[in-house]
From TrEMBL:
The gene is sfsA. Signal peptide: none annotated. PANTHER family: SUGAR FERMENTATION STIMULATION PROTEIN A. Belongs to the SfsA family. This is Sugar fermentation stimulation protein homolog. NCBIfam families: sfsA. Residues 13-79 form the SfsA N-terminal OB domain. Residues 83-218 form the Sugar fermentation stimulation protein C-terminal domain. Gene3D superfamilies: 2.40.50.580, 3.40.1350.60. CDD domains: SfsA-like_bacterial. It comes from Carboxylicivirga linearis.
């Protein structure tokens, strides 16, 4: 995923009210940037850390910028939760994920039951539904999801379990937007209900694919698949 417009450099002053952040630009101006991440952003906040913003395309939007990434321990961490769906969609269309190759038709946001599943991929032989989640939290060398309780996330797992029961391929893709981890797992201490649901889904045949991506001010691209511990 290549950024459409050049990003704007600054430093984090503070994040507040979940969806807002104060950023000091290189010229000294302090601006308000929209934060798409509604979670706690544990392990993703550091005062005065370098950040990059994207300018808003809609001139009528209240916040003129969107917070895209933050530099932690010398590496960029992507915090925009809107990107993982696009990253996974483009990767599947371009056959960049070995387990998800060979689909001629790939569509985003498809209604299934009472939910919308992020991606539907189809070939002549099968239909596959793929739910995508953004991962930024870490503990030691392990990437964890979620960083806050997510009833919506559990609902999506339940939908995937039902699809699998109906004989349809179902996949959970976790896009890990940081490079300082080497394993993925559920955040049991934060949301034990989600952790149990993920284990149930996996035992039911729902596939789990954690994908680590490299984040830079120019693009976000898939690096490799990580092992997982459920």
């Amino acid at each position: 995923m290549i950024f459409d417009t050049p990003l704007i450099h600054g430093r984090l002053v503070k994040r507040y009210k979940r969806f807002l952040s104060d950023i000091q630009l290189d010229n000294g101006e302090i601006v308000i940037a929209h934060c798409t991440n509604s979670g706690s952003m544990k392990t993703c906040l550091e005062e005065n850390a370098e950040v990059y913003l994207s300018p808003a395309k809609d001139p009528k939007r209240k916040t003129r910028y969107t917070w895209e990434m933050i530099k932690l321990n010398g590496r960029w961490v992507g915090i925009n939760t809107m990107h993982p769906n696009r990253i996974a969609y483009e990767a599947i269309k371009n056959n960049e994920i070995p387990q998800l190759q060979g689909y001629e038709h790939v569509q985003r946001e498809v209604k299934v039951g009472n939910s919308r599943i992020d991606i539907m991929a189809q070939s002549n032989n099968e239909t596959c539904f793929i739910e995508v989640k953004n991962v930024t939290m870490k503990e030691q060398n392990m990437a964890l999801f979620p960083d806050a309780v997510t009833t919506r996330g559990k609902k999506h797992l339940d939908e995937l379990i039902q699809l699998k029961k109906e004989g349809i391929r179902a996949v959970m893709v976790y896009i890990i937007q940081r490079m300082d981890v080497d394993t993925f797992g559920p955040a049991e201490d934060i949301d034990p209900t989600y952790a149990r649901a993920l284990r149930k889904a996996y035992k039911s045949g729902v596939e789990v694919i954690p994908l680590q991506v490299t984040v830079s001010p120019h693009e976000i691209k898939i690096h490799k698949e990580l092992p997982f511990i459920l």
